[in-house]
Amino acid sequence: MKTYNVNSIGIICNNETGTFIKLKAEFIPALKALDGFSHINVLWWFSDFDKEEYRSVLETEQPYKNAPEKMGIFATRSPIRPNPIALTAVEIIHVDYQNGIIQITYIDANDNTPIIDIKPYTPSLDRVETPVVPGWCSHWPKSLEESGTFAWEQEFNF
């Protein structure tokens, strides 16, 4: 099996001062021309769940209240995965191009989580007009904006 090297480009700061992406100095030039985009896709590493025993878990017991009794990991957003990679679309509040800081509204990652990559959110490639989901999660919000006020804590079994 081939091994790949993935290097962090920065960290997520998610604490009492706010939610930010802080890039390593050498990656600050990569922010050029990001202005004008309202959202970005952030690829990050589930570093708190990067354990060898987690990488072999392929099924899980009903993580969501209305879900099937057993689910394959690829049908969940679980941090326990063969490769602990996460993807979150986030709204940009402000970009500090000089210091390599992107202030964002929210991300479902812990403070000091490593970032793998950032891509601009573009509707022509990232938006699906009529997505279909299983019945057990069809009542979930239809957009990132609606998710902010949704009672997510009532959806999970953990």
From TrEMBL:
The UniProt record lists the keyword S-adenosyl-L-methionine: yes
PROSITE patterns the record matches: TSAA_2 (PS51668)
Pfam families: TrmO_N
Protein name as annotated: tRNA-Thr(GGU) m(6)t(6)A37 methyltransferase TsaA
Tree of life domain: Bacteria
Any one GO molecular function term: methyltransferase activity
PANTHER family associated with the record: TRNA (ADENINE(37)-N6)-METHYLTRANSFERASE (PTHR12818:SF0)
Keywords linked to the UniProt accession: Methyltransferase, S-adenosyl-L-methionine, Transferase
CDD domains: UPF0066
Species for this entry: Murimonas intestini
Residue span, TsaA-like domain: 6-130
